[in-house]
Amino acid sequence: MVQPTHFGRYSVIRRLGNGGFAAVWLARDEELDAEVAVKVLAEHWVDDLDVRRRFVEEGRFLRKVESPYVIGVHDSGTTDDERPFLVLTYADRGTLADRIKDGPLPLAEALEVIENVSSGLQELHDRGVLHRDVKPENVLFRSTPTGERAMLGDLGLGKSLDKVSRVTMPGGTPAYVAPEQVRGDVLDPRADLYALAAVTYAALSGRPPYSATTLAAVLAVDGPPAPLETVPAAVNEVIRRGLSKDRDQRWPDVRSFAEALHAAAEAPAKTRRLTLNPWVAATVAAALLGGAGGYLGWQYGVQHQTVRVMDKSQALSVELPREWARTRAGDGWQPQGATSQLPGLLVSRDNNRWTGSDADVPGIFIGVLPTGQLPSAATLLVPATCAASADQTDTPSTATVKYAGCPAGMTTYERVKQFGEKLVRIEVRAEDAAQAEQVLDSVEYKPRS
Fold first, then answer.
1. The pairing of beta strand 316-321 with beta strand 344-348
2. What gap in Å lies between CA 111 and CA 105, rounded to an integer?
3. Phi, then psi, of 266 in degrees rounded to 5
4. Is 331 designated active site?
5. Which of 376, 362, 350 is nearest to 430 (CA)?
6. Please, what is the end-to-end C-alpha distance for the chain in angstroms?
7. In the CATH scheme, what architecture does the domain 96-266 have?
8. Is the pTM of this model over 0.85?
9. Exposure of 119 by Cβ count < 10 A (0-12 exposed, 13-18 middle, 19+ buried)?
10. How far apart are CA 177 and CA 210, in angstroms?
11. CATH 3.40.1000 in the chain, residues?
């Protein structure tokens, strides 16, 4: 394609890119002395009246929204060869797709991007417009006096809500499109919400949640995507709900999704510091990590029956039944004798109930202890109500106490294990003694260098 010199009063600088229906050029508004992006209908579509109509309609949709988070249309016109063009806000810092090619974004950065995009998307919805093609390529960045801003662009598939309420056609990008959009169902804003959740997943993982490459493959997707290992469990849950195949199970709107995502990421771990002897019974010590907040890294085990869970530092990990991992926290703890927080992890069916020695809640607590010598099993304190059933065992690298039926129906293991020069405290509580022992033996401590 030969580079044109002008589109009306806009002098062309260089081409920014090509799409299926249009080319985008960087140009300068000679009257206002400002850089703009000019989107021009491709030559081979000039005689297609439907494509031409959709191109012009995009400009009308964008003009409905005066938002700092949506690419704006400043002007329109026609080239010398009768092709329509739109003059758009120039996003000078590339796209989200460009950035995630290099890997996932840090959580804080991804949250800021999604917050910006969700604001723009909600404003579209508030004005009766669906985007229908939210994806990383359509998330653009623009310089601001204080940094940059993420913006939503390219409404080539956009439709007004009154039109999609009557009829819609399949369309969208397979890796990000909602199932109902592929089926050609009547759409509402929850289709865009699904795409936004998929973009959120991609920003945090560097890849889309599913590997669908065709629209037909979207309908074959079964089950939630693999959980992200580098974000709090609560963030995973927010994204997973946004990606529900049944739109009635998703968040009610984009604003609700964005607010839930922010709350899940910002909720502080309910960490409590102990001033007790390091060998105190972990039924009390497990209170250090509080409720369900905090960091969770995890991987599925054999046939998805188990998960391997890591703490925030990724030093501690354990493989345990998936049904146990309903609440988890892993931001660390500070036992007596430590001058700062050490790695710690609590995973159970109910962290709020875990702290009671009489709570019949399966789960595990793991915490690194201050440097010291391995104690004997006799020094590991056991709740008085459980002492009668306690069995003590010492090996060169472990001190272990097991007590059964305390609380009723449960088996509890208390252990201090030596990993190199470090000691790690472990408590496992389970309904099945063999299962408790298996979980206990799966604990690993591998500090990251």
1. unpaired
2. 9
3. -95, -15
4. no
5. 362
6. 52
7. Orthogonal Bundle (1.10)
8. no
9. buried
10. 11
11. 282-445
> Which among 391, 437, 445 is positioned nearest to 418, based on CA atoms?
445
Task: Provide the residue-wise pLDDT of the chain in tens; the chain has 449 residues.
Answer: 578 888 888 999 999 887 777 888 899 998 888 899 898 988 888 888 878 887 887 777 677 677 889 888 888 899 888 888 989 889 899 899 999 998 899 998 999 999 999 999 998 888 888 888 899 999 999 988 878 899 998 765 444 444 443 334 445 678 899 998 888 888 899 999 999 999 999 999 999 998 877 877 888 787 788 889 888 888 999 999 999 999 999 999 999 999 899 888 876 433 322 222 433 333 333 334 433 344 444 443 443 467 788 888 888 989 988 788 777 777 788 887 778 888 988 888 877 777 665 678 899 999 999 878 898 888 887 666 676 678 889 999 999 999 887 777 888 899 999 998 899 999 999 988 889 999 999 999 988 76
The structural architecture, per CATH, of the domain 282-445 is 3-Layer(aba) Sandwich (3.40)
Q: Measured in whole angstroms, how far is the alpha carbon of residue 448 from the centre of its chain?
A: 23
CATH of domain 6-88: 3.30.200.20
Token pair for residue 8? 């009306």
- The Cα 125–Cα 353 span in angstroms is 42
Distance CA 310, CA 332 (A): 11
The rounded distance, in Å, linking the Cα atoms of 417 and 426 is 8
Q: Where in the chain is the domain with CATH 1.10.510.10?
A: 96-266
Catalytic residue among 29, 102, 133, 331: 133
